[in-house]
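ugh ok so i messed up the first submission bc i forgot one of the chains. this is the corrected input, ALL of the components this time, i swear. 225 residues overall. if the numbers dont match what u have on ur side tell me asap before i send this to the collaborators (the ones from the other lab, u know who)
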Amino acid sequence: DTEVTQTPKHLVMGMTNKKSLKCEQHMGHRAMYWYKQKAKKPPELMFVYSYEKLSINESVPSRFSPECPNSSLLNLHLHALQPEDSALYLCASSQEVSSWTGELFFGEGSRLTVL
Amino acid sequence: KNEVEQSPQNLTAQEGEFITINCSYSVGISALHWLQQHPGGGIVSLFMLSSGKKKHGRLIATINIQEKHSSLHITASHPRDSAVYICAVTTLNTGNQFYFGTGTSLTVIP
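and heres the new structure output, hopefully the right one now
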């Protein structure tokens, strides 16, 4: 199994809603990532989890709250988002051995629209 | 300045043409990755390389560490190759961070 599975594929929410994006991998990878991608732009790193601990937070607003319940799952909790947060949210995973990350596996993404 | 620069930004080719996409980087790397993203879709890893050359089907990736340059070649291009191709690097001292190029949007016309 070399897949990273993301749900939902599409999400429309209002600015007062609370929703969550989910990501799952069963490759035994110990590094998991959330990226945000706007149209025609490269992915922007949001968070990195290493061995289920948050290791990098790229100054992301607190309305985005990541959670790593176990080594296979990564969630992104959304609350009080703004229309400019509308984007494709990509989850990825990789092996982590000191400074050698290995190949990066991406999910299909969750396309979020904030009304 | 971006750590990873790609060229061209946009590329249109006729079916069957040989295609080259270039990537230059300015940092010490542990690996360079070529990724493919179809419209509206997720990203697929094509190659990960740290030296030399790799081939997979009609795709070939090369890297010159001394010149800090990599190329992705597509032979006998096909409309299904139409996608955005992204070069990304992992650096020597930030192993689990990826730095992305801005991507090359390829359209192959039948």
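quick check: The radius of gyration of chain B is 13 Å. that seems consistent at least. Chain B has a mean pLDDT of 91.
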